[in-house]
Amino acid sequence: MLLVFIALGAIALDLSAVAGAQRAAERDLAAAADDAAGMLDAHAHQLDGSIRIDAAGATAVVDARVSSSDGPGRIVDLQVEVTDTTVEITARVVSPHLFLRAVPGMADRSISAPVHVRARLQP
Q1: In this structure, how many other beta carbons lie within 10 angstroms of the beta carbon of residue 119?
Q2: What is the DSSP string of 104-122?
């Protein structure tokens, strides 16, 4: 019975670690999306007075923020979609097992969770 409680506790702690890594990645990606939404296309504004997001600049900002992220999980499968007024980021955060590494066959596996954030330009 004690072994079952220890195993269930290990599973709960591993899933809690993934949830924590997902929240940290979501905060990092939300900050990246907010910064990217502030990358205005100055050339278009000078030409016709429109206010829209510079797609190349926004993508570069997201890439820089993600590469400098030091959260507990690893951000993979990063997809950035930029329109004139929105920045959408979809990714997966991968977190290694904490306790289930001791189980044979689980040492090389990790748990992943999806993350999706959106920032909108408010002119």
Answers
A1: 22
A2: TT-TT-EEEEEEEEEEE--
